[in-house]
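Lab manual, section 2.4: Encoding a predicted structure.

Procedure: take the sequence of the chain (607 residues), apply the prediction step described in section 2.3, and record the output as structure tokens. A sample record is shown.
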Amino acid sequence: MSHLLVAAFDFGTTFSTCAISYWHTYQRNPTHITIPAWGVDSEGFPSWKTPTCILFDPTGKFHSFGYEAEEMYSNLALDDKHHDWFYFRRFTMMLTNKMDLTRDTLIEDEKGKKMEAMKVFSSAIDHHKDHLLTLCKKQVLENFDITWVLTVPAIWNDKLKQFIRECAEKVGIRRDRLKLAIEPEAALLYCMHLPVEEYSKNATNEVVTTGYKYMVVVAGDEKVDISVHEVMKNGSVKTLSILSECDCGETELEASFIGLLTDIVGKDVMDSFSSTHKYDLFDLLRDFEVKKKTVSPERNEKVAFTVPASLLEIYFKKNPGRKYTNYKYKDQLIWKRDKLRMNAHLVKSLFDRSCKQIVDHLKELFMHPTVKDVSSILLVGRFAESPMLQTAIRDAFKSKNVIIPNEASMAVIKGATLCGHEPKRTSGTVNSIFLVAAIDFGTTFSGYAFSFRHDYMKDPLQMSTTNWIAGSGGLMSLKTSTCILFDPTGKFDSFGYDAEEKYSNLALDNKHHDWFYFCRFKMMLYNKKDLTRETLIEDDKGKKMKAIKVFSSAIGYIKDQLLNHCKKQMTGIDENDVEWVLTVPAIWNDNSKQFMREAAEKVYFSY
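Recorded output:
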């Protein structure tokens, strides 16, 4: 055991949450996971998630997150004092859409004002971190070792994952204590620990077991992510393919509800209400969030929604003396004072488009040869708790095992804590190598190449190299000269074309005699039968220096050049993210290979 506690964060498009699991509790019952409440919903029940929104004051200082941010910004808007504040809502989607993401990438708030994406995300992580630490201190310990886990969608590439890692490091979460959990893998891991009675009545009797493949459908807020995984015989989860994502999540259902209200009161009324009474709008959507979970295909009773008084006030102000009756829905709803009662058929129709899109998309995916042998569907995420979606999938795929855990919206966050306790069981929490970097020392010329994992998955031959500039003529080459220069004190000065030019200029001025210049020095290893750490090699003028210093300096220089090149393509890269490869001739014996390894290690631990 390397930790006393696992703390996990899940930032969804619309809602976010966090969870903790103590090691001693996990040993007794892995599914005993603590999720702090963020308040109460419209029915008075605890709310285990908080809105994914964040507020900064006019100076750019973090102010609040979640429900507190919503309420504060709404009050500022009522007083017309919100214009200089920065309010970001559903900001995680902004990250997914940024293909050229860097540390300096800007995202826009609700009013179009810009702020660094890294500041927004790191502030959100910091808030959740402080929230959990406060909770932990209330329960047991002051000082303990925590493993932190952040959930990420399966569709995210390595650049997005690296960005979120750096955001976490920025607020004091150590890299060696941070893990990323792939959402569908986390959900599968959680479901593997559940007994049969912990699954929804709309599921089949099948549970998640080893030796089978599963199509995992994460029905979230904005999108529905679909991927295929296999639970191996040893209990580990292996990702076989990330199929696609579908823009038919809960936000589309929410938009249908707002569209219906707009049909009733008019676009001008709804626009005015949305812009001037933000907190009332949030309350209305939260009420819809609760009520929609009660809507099932079998329901015949009307569904009642509480309508904010401010919406009615705006309607009558813009439509004096006119009743809010829309003939399109006159036989399907009743609106009296603050209660809007809709016929069950009308409410159920709001689900039609989203459910059909998801079912049609899954049918299309099951036609793909790689998933024809997948017999089970695991449905998780916030939208997965809807009986309408559950029934639609179950009816459309009668030949499949449809698995739906109770509290499906919590499967990912609870699974994330298990990923912290059981990192070797999921690929996302084990593999931290983002790229492979290769260094090739030739007798005359040397160079490097690197390949990011996400590029390799798409095209194994997609690799990056660099252009070295030779001399004042500006000739560009994919390789540079295998020569290295040290000053008279033995300090490294330059490598390759830079070393050639510098030594040539020194020679022209007759100032080169005390400098150490090694050219084609790789050949010197061939002739050293008794190679050791103390072996000396001669430079161009016969002056001697330890061979391991010459080689490690050369490796160190190329390593730094390579890392600087990588950082231009992805934020936050360091040695821990890289699998390093050094080429050696086939004729080299084990002694020479070990010497080269040690030269590389000397650089790694000293830089």
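Check your result against the sample. DSSP finds 20 helices and 29 strands in the chain.
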